[in-house]
Amino acid sequence: MEQVPLSHVLILSSCLFFLGIYGFFSRRNMITMLMSIExxxxxxxxxxxxxxxxxxxxxxxxxxxxxxxxxxAAAEVSLAIAIIINLYRKFNTIDVEDTNTMxx
Amino acid sequence: MxxxxxxxLLILLLPILSFAGLSFLGKRITPCTAGIVGTTVLxxxxxxxxxxxxxxxxxxxxxxxxxxxxxxxxxxxLQFNENLSINLSIILDPISVMMLVVIxxxxxxxxxxxxxxxxxxxxxxxxxxxxxxxxxxxxxLVVSGNLFxxxxxxxxxxxxxxxxxxxxxxxxxxxxxxKKAFIVTRFADLGFLLGILMLSYGAETLDFFVLIERLTxxxxxxxASFTAxxxxxxxxxxxxxxxxxxxxxxKSAMFPLHIWLPDAMEGPTPVSALIHAATMVVAGVYLxxxxxxxxxxxxxxxxxxxxxxxxxxxLFAAVIACTQTDIKRVLAYSTISQIAFMxxxxxxxxxxxxxxxxxxxxxxxxxxxxxxxxLLFLGAGAVIHAVHSNExxxxxxxxxxxxxxxxxxxxxxxxxxxxxxxxxxxxxxxILNAAYxxxxxxxxxxxxxxxxxxFYMFRLYFRIFWYKADEHGHHNHEKGMWAMNLPLIIxxxxxxxxxxxxxxxxxxxxxxxxxxxxxxxxxxxxxLAGVIGIGIAWMMYSKQNSNPDKVSASFGRFYNWAYHKxxxxxxxxxVTKKVLFNLVGRPAAWFDKNVVDGMINGYASITSTxxxxxxxxxxxxxxxxxxxxLGGVLVVAILLIVNFI
Lengths: 104, 645
Known about the structure:
The structure holds 2 protein chains of 2 kinds. Chain A is mainly α. Chain A is built from 3 helices and no strands. The longest helix of chain A is centred in the last third of the chain and has 31 residues. Chain B is mainly alpha-helical. Helices cover 72% and strands 4% of the residues of chain B. Chain B has a two-stranded antiparallel sheet with strand order 1-2. In chain B, β3 and β4 form a beta hairpin. Chain B is globular, with a radius of gyration of 29 Å. Chains A and B meet through α1 of A and α26 of B.
C-alpha cells in the first residue's frame, strides 16, 4: 500500500493550527477559546507523530512528547475551566470582552 | 585558665549580666530588689578585682623581675588578613589591674550611695542598669589588648555616659548637657579613629604590645618607614599619636575640648562621682599611658605637646574653679585640673628608670584622685540632698548638722590640696618632682596651680560648712542615711591612706619596680603653696564678710572673664552657629535640597511620565495580549527563516 506522503500530514496539521489561531482571536466565548487552544496543541501532536514516523521510525521520542503534551493539556484544561467558573461567578458572563478589569 | 583568669572574666561578665537583667526585668521587680541586685553584683566584682590584683602583683605577674602583661583571654574576632585582626581580649598588666580595682571599688561605692540618693526615683532599675553598663564599658576599655577593642568600648563609654547625664530627660538642660557631652567627645573620637588607622597602617597590627614593640625597637623597619615621612615638622608617627591623643583629650576634657564636663553635672550626683572620679575622664590618661612607650621612645615631640596642653589646662581650669558658685561646677573644674595634672605628668616623663617617674606619678595620682574626688562628689551630693540646691549662697554652717559629711569632706579637701600625710600629698609630690626634673617651666606653673587648687577647694569647704550660722536648724541631716554615709567613710579611709602604698613597686613604665624619689626639702615649696591657698581661703570664707567681693572687684575684668569661663562656650557657639552654620551648614542644606533632591525627583518624574505614557498598553484584554505575543513569534520566525534559509 502506498504511504501517505509527509507533506499531506503537515498540511493537515498547519490547517488545524491556523484554525485554532483563528478561533482564539475571533471567538469571545472563553470555552470556545479554550477549545481553540486544544486544536493548536493537537496540531502540534500530529506534527510530532508525523516527524517521528517518517524521519526516525526506530525511535519513540516524538510519541513521548505527544504523551506529555496530552497530559499537560489535560491539566491545563482543568485549571482553565476552574478559572472560567470563578470568572462566571464574579461577572455572570464568560465573554472575554467583559472581563477586562485587570488593567492599569 | 587559672582561677585568676576566670575572676578577671567574671569582673567583666557580672556588670553586663546585671545590665541585661535589670533592663529586661526592671519593670517586674521592686526598685529595692533592683538596687540590691545591682549593688551586690558590683561588690562581688570589686572583691574579684582585689583578688585578681593580689594574684597579679604577688603570684603570677612578675616574670624575671618585671611585671609583664598577661593575657587572660583572647578571642580572634575579625581576621582581615594574616597580619591584621581584631581580637577581643582581657589583658592584665600593672595599669589595667590597677584600673580594674579603682573602677570596681568606686563603682560599688556609687551603687551603694545611689541606693539612698536616688530613692523614690521612678526609673530606679533603669538607673542601676545604666550604671552597670557604664561600669562594664569602662572595665572592657581598660582590659583591651587591642586598639580597636579599646575603641569599641570607648564608644560604649560615650553612649552610657550620654544615657546617665541625660537621666533626667524631662529637664531641657539635662538633654542639652547629654547631647553636648556626646557630640564633643564624638568629635574628638574622630581624631582617635584617624589615629588608630594611621598607627595600624604604620605598624600593620592593632595589638598594643606588638604595636609597641614594632614602634619602639630602634632597628624596626616599621618605625623607620613611619618616621620617614613628616608633615609640618612632626613625623607621621607623631601625628598619629597626636590624633590618638585628641580622642583622649576629648574624654579627659583637656583644653579646648573640656566644655562638656562642667555641663555633665546635670546628671544625678553619684553619676558625676563615677564619671569624674574613676572612669570616663581618666580614659584619656589611660590611653596615653597605654601607648606610653611609643610616645616616650619614638615620639618625644608628641609627648611634649601632651605635657604643654596638660599644664595649660590645669592652670586654666583651676582659675575658673576659683570663681564658680555652683559647688558641682567647682568640683568639675577641679577634676579637669587634676586630670590635667596626670596628663602633664605623662608629658614630662621620658624613657628609662629615673626619667619615667612621671608615668608612675601619673598613675599614682589617678589612683589617689579616684578616691578623694569620688568622696568630694558624694559629699557634695549629700549636701545637695540636704539643702536641695547646688548654689553656694544657699549653704553655710552645715558642719553641725552633717558631721560625717563634714569630716570626710575635710579629709578629701586636705588630700586634694596636698597636705602632708594624706594620699594626695604623695601623688602630687611625685608629679611635681617629675615635672621639676622633666621641664622646669611646667613645674612652676604646676606649683602655682596646686596653690590655686588648695584655695578653691577650701573656698568650697569653708563656704559649705562654715561661713555663716546654719539656717536649717540643728536637726541632723544624716539620720538613717547609712547607705550614703558608709561609702563616704570607706572612701575617706581610701583618701587618707592610699598614699602609703609603695606605688613604684607595682606600676612603672617598663614593669620593673623602682622607688618613687622623695625629698623632704623638695616638698617645702608645694606644701607652702597649699598652706598659703588654704590660708587665703580661710581669711576670705571662714566667716561672713565682704572680703570676697573686695578681692573679686580688685581683679576686675579678669575675674569676670574667669567667672564666665573665659567665654569658651560662647566662642564655640559663635563658631558653630555663626560661622559653621552660615558658611557650611546652609550651603550644604541648599545643595541637598536642590541638587541632590532635584536629581532624585528628576529620576522619579521621568519614570512616572514614561509609565503614564505607555500604561494604555495594559488594556486587560486577553486577546490583545495574545496578538502582541503572536506578532512577536511571527517576527522571530521571519528572522529565523531569513537567516537560516
